[in-house]
Amino acid sequence: MTNLLPREPSLLRLDLKTSKKIEINHRRNKEKDHTELLDDCAKRFRYQDCKDEYWNPEAYSLLYATPLWEQANASQRVLLNQLYWVAYYSQIISAEIATIFYNQTSAAGLYGLNDFRGVCDMLDLESAQERSHINAFFTISEKVEEALFGERVFSYDMRNPYAQTMIFPDTNRLKNMWRSLQLRSFALLSSGSAFIASQYFTVRGLRTLNGKMVQQRLSQFYQKHPDQENAPIPSAISYYHYMDESFHFNSSCIIGHDVISSLPSPTPFEKLVGNMSIIGCQKDHSNFSAVVNGLFWYEPALFSPIYKILRSDIFSMGEREAKEMMSLCFCRENEAIHSSFDTMTTAIESYKKFLDPLDYVNQTNKNLSLMRKMNIEKYLQNNQRALTRFIAPINLI
Fold this sequence. Notes:
Layout: H1 11-14, H2 16-31, H3 35-44, H4 47-50, H5 67-71, H6 74-111, H7 117-148, H8 173-190, H9 194-223, H10 233-258, H11 268-284, H12 303-311, H13 319-331, H14 335-355, H15 363-366, H16 376-390
């Protein structure tokens, strides 16, 4: 009978500190898993039960601090607050669809190494949780938009992970095709390269950083609610989601910063792919939105849904009045624009700190050079050109 040689331990197994981080993060996430609570919330939600209440802190309302917000009455402000929830978590759905898929392709790239099962098990749990998150967000968003508009405004049918991650991007058909090809290529590469698989979590961590800041504040609405048992269900969902995502962000940090050090040095090609993926994240985050402070949507892509909201029974604006209001909100400096740009600036600085320890990251990415090109003047110019085309049939005063 052949005597098998003992397996040589991996660098991850020898790195007791990182191995312990993985074990603790996975165990605590299982112990505090909010899947059942989220599923229960989705089943119990009735818009009629909370249609007259705020679901988020007031500052997290659609078009908060714009001229529209300043002119809105109390009931309109409540609806704008609720629509922020719908819009924000519609974007999170798209991000989490991609997360489920790339968790699995990355796990495939890592599972081929000795002693990496713990990492993969941690990702399996997260993917199951993401499906629960998506279901809860879809359920509430669809019911709210059906009640208010009778049609979709920010929500959408289920999409595949090769679609644009940003649901209101600066794009066209050719850009969408190229993006899909890039995502398909990255999926293939991450499933066959442990370094690219781990590096995905650097990108996931970047994409989560700004969301972590916003979602913490959204979760506080439920945490500080004087009657949590009767708090609006969407606010409870915000809290449960944030609690799950706190562990997911820990995973991104552990894999993207610590586990990656337990791998062989990346090849020049792997470094190139890693930096290209970070550049892709910069491109996605190179805009800011006064409609939804905290998201990187391209404002002209939002003109149509915002126009629909202004013409709806919520505001009952005529064609000219609606387009004049859009000009005030998007083409003239106001508090909302400055606040949203400040959020983007904060994101840039947090991204820089996140990337600083990583040797393979080039200077364009470490300095967030693409994101830094955006400013308020450029934002206004983009909006003015796009709104001129959008309102061409109407002569504004």
